[in-house]
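Why predict the complex rather than its parts? Because the way molecules touch one another can change local conformation, and only a joint prediction can capture that. The input here totals 543 residues.
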Amino acid sequence: MPVTNKDILHWLQRSTQVLHENNAFLTQLDSAIGDADHGSNMDRGFSAVITKISGMQEADIGTLLKTVGTTLVSTVGGASGPLYGTAFLRAGMATAGKQHLEGAEIVAMFEAAVEGIKARGKAQAGEKTMLDAFIPALEAGKQAQLEQVPVTELLQRMAGSAESGMKATIDLLATKGRASYLGERSIGHQDPGATSSWLILQALADTVAS
Amino acid sequence: MKKLINKPGDVVREALAGMASAHADLIKVDLEQQIIVRKDAPLQNKVALISGGGSGHEPLHGGYVGYGMLDAACPGAVFTSPVPDQMLTATHAVNGGAGVLYIIKNYTGDVMNFEMAAELAATEGIEVASVITNDDVAVQDSLYTAGRRGVGVTVLLEKIVGGLAETGAPLSQVADLARKVNSQGRSMGMALTSCTVPAAGKPTFELGEDEMEIGIGIHGEPGRRRTRLTTAAEITEILTNPVIEDLGLKAGDEVLAMVNGMGGTPLLELYIVFNELQRILQGKAISITRSLVGNYITSLEMAGCSITLLRLDKQLQKYWDAPVHTPALRWGR
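Output of the joint prediction:
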């Protein structure tokens, strides 16, 4: 079963809800190594997204995701706004005109998103950022695609790898973003950006599974 | 959380509305777009200066909009970068045809959002130059960090470069002077207490009664190390020595010295720090020829201070002394 534009809408709604529920948790993570605003910024951004896409039931996936991207850029601020905004814009470009996505298209969509985050943030794997959730997820997605597993399982594996990647950020030394100012003291804390990235990927897996 | 607010979500908007009415003679505030613009903007054939960043550092940046300083400021949510839409709207509001200079403090979010705004402005054919301030010696400038943070020098830069822009100098000269000011100034800060982001509701970090945090930035983020609280004399040494060393200051040099409060420290204590700073510099035969003491770039209600030294020459001194009339800085006019 491919992922439909309705699934994408439901995913965005679920992400909004999950980010709202985790507002305080994300902010708590950000207090330890950042500036205590990641939860409220993501919550504010996705609330705006829900309003923006409320009338877009018939829109194709590319249009939906591009709308998410521009809305996040306009409302989130901080580093998360340009990074998530660019990720969704690139994902939208990769899915332009599509009403549904097969496994290979899902992987291509995430590949575009990851390339966008790398370019905007001038970052790579292992720097204690959202990429440490996204890159393992993308790799798991590629592997799952090689094995021709069903889309639901592909997404579960991606979310699972994002979660492991997120947990692995605890031991990483931050070299990008505000946490990098802490040097060695950034070790021992889970990265808030990797955490919101996992929440969003898990929301997609859960949406398509249900 | 004990704060003089109505609702955490309304803090920035209501403060902007207050600024608009308090300083209606100097600034216009667009509450919808969340930008502060100089009253007489756009000024034809004058390079326009725009800065911005998270709220919570007042008077930076909105308090520096006016004659001889900024043309516009874009405040974000508390400690959160503003968004490209704000910067682009501000660019349209102040562009008088001579180009626009973005003054950006070196934080990942600020840099990325201004970068996106500059890309958008360029597609419209507006000439934009950007300068990034990164004067905080507490951060190692290496491949392993996001680079030094922009702190105290930003205030001095906005004043000095604003002075030059007022003379009608072209964008390239204005941008060059901005880079020069940034390269000649360094800062270091410390905290006695943390601060509370209104939306978070509790202090960003905890500091014991007998502890202080050395090398803090301006966002309530922890610093480089936590040590036992000591005297103003010793704290001033701890902050000043790395600044002197990094700038390579030597006997005979002249500096502008700023002792900046983080928001929760009384002027009485800031003057004690200035006195110690004067003593340290005098001991090295470095003369303070210009000074600024007060709350100029803050971190909400954090107690603590930062020290900024800017190596002065005739050009920098001339534009520092030039008239300025903004809500937070005014002389000569």
